[in-house]
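Marked as duplicate of an earlier ticket. Keeping the data here for the record.
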Amino acid sequence: MNGSGTPSALTSADDPTGLQSFAVQLRRMNSEFNRIAQEFAHAQGLHPTDMQALIAILDADADADADADADAPGEPMTPGRLRKQLNLTSGAVTACLDRLERAGHIRRVRAAGDRRVVHLEYAEQARSLARDYFRPLARSTDTARGRFTPDELTVVVRFLREMNRELVLLRQDRG
C-alpha cells in the first residue's frame, strides 16, 4: 500500500523492499514462529487448535490496545469471541476449553457484573511454564530489536500493525 489504500507497484524479486521480498520474509518468520509453537504444543500434549486458543487468550489478557483485536479491543476473552476468532463451532470450542482447563492451562471465570458471562484466563502456572519455554525466543527478539534504532523500530511496529489490520480485514471479507 502506498498510504492511499492502493497497492504499491510490484517490484522485482531482488528488490529488498518489493512485495515478493516481503512475502518471503513474512512467510519465513511465520514458519519459524509456528515451528516453535508446535514444539511447545507437542511437549504439552496440546492440539494445534489448543495452541491457537492459548495464544488468543494470552493476547486478550495482555493486550488492552485497540490494535490487538478489532472485534473487541481490550476486552477479556470469552468462549464466543474465541469461537469467532478461531472460526470454530461452539462444540469444538467447548472441547478445546475443556482440554485446556483439565491440563491446567486456563481458567473459566464468571464475570462479576454478569454471572452468565464467562471470561477465559491463562492460568498463572501455565503462564509461567510458557514464559520459561519461550524465554529464548524473547531473547532472540530482543537481540534483533537491538540492531535497530528507535525510529526504525517505530516504522517496523507501524508496518506490523498495518499488516495485522489488513489480515483481519481479509479474514472478515472472506467470512
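See parent ticket for discussion. The first strand starts at residue 106 and ends at 110.
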